[in-house]
Design brief:
This protein is α+β, with helices and mostly antiparallel strands. Helices cover 44% and strands 18% of the residues. β1 and β2 form a beta hairpin.
Length: 247
């Protein structure tokens, strides 16, 4: 989307960047920490942080700043407009009970896949460091690959990391072609943590390209190929169809 420069507030954009800089999981960040991460002068960063403090989005603990619960309200409009609590959450919870596994939904935003729902809360996901609002690598996760495989060719160049080597791009293209044929993405336990992941694409009612993915994480060796193909995948696909109106 192209917008005239006169319609863009760079200061507002910098303020939002400050909020996003807190996504590292650290207890608090100093103005100097934020300035280094954002690449801004310390004086500019301090004004942005103090403004956010005045508005109630950050709070000071000595020289360190932390986000306040008020920041959670920034996503409330999204959750309500997409019927996450009224439709998506209940559907995912019901299907997760049938499968005996927590189901997660992640949606594409720009070049990031963002976790939107875990139903019910998954200790497996949290052990991996992912919570609601966390972003997933597109090329290296089952949910990311399930999304990429069902996007148009024109999107691939912008969605896949630009620093990916040509051999890696070719290997990914081969993987995505297989996913399109079978209708789901499956990643075995490649990092030694003992968990595998399987995911299917999620579409909106009027979208031909995937807008995200539904998936589960399960212990290595828990399911054989037939169970994954004949039980897990059809249930995830059914769940994706049920929630399409909200996507």
């Amino acid at each position: 989307m192209t917008v005239a420069d006169s319609e863009i507030s760079l200061t507002f954009a910098k303020g939002l960047a400050v909020l996003r800089a807190f996504d590292t999981g650290e207890k608090g960040l100093t103005v100097a920490d934020l300035a280094r991460r954002l690449g801004h002068a310390r004086a500019i960063t301090r004004r942005l942080v103090r403004t956010l403090e005045m508005l109630g989005y950050v709070t000071a603990d000595g020289t360190r700043y932390r986000l306040t619960p008020l920041t959670l309200k920034l996503g409330l409009g999204f959750l309500q407009s997409r019927s996450i609590g009224q439709l998506v959450g209940p559907v995912l919870r019901e299907e997760s009970l049938l499968l005996g596994e927590p189901i997660s939904l992640a949606l594409l935003s720009g070049r990031e896949l963002i976790y939107v729902v875990h139903a019910p809360t998954s200790a497996k996901i949290e052990m991996a460091g992912y919570t609601i609002g966390s972003s997933l690598p597109l090329a290296a996760t089952a949910m990311g690959q399930a999304t990429l495989a069902f996007r148009g060719e024109a999107d691939m160049a912008t969605l896949v990391q630009p620093d990916m080597s040509i051999p890696d791009r070719r290997a990914l293209a081969h993987v995505l072609a297989s996913i399109r044929l079978q209708g789901f993405a499956h990643l075995p336990d490649t990092d030694g943590k003992g968990f595998c992941a399987i995911a299917v694409p999620a579409f909106g009612l009027h979208t031909k390209d995937a807008v995200g993915a539904l998936g589960i994480v399960y212990p290595n060796g828990q399911y054989d190929t037939a169970h994954l193909r004949d039980v897990i995948v059809p249930n995830l696909q059914k769940c994706a169809r049920y929630i399409a109106t909200a996507l």
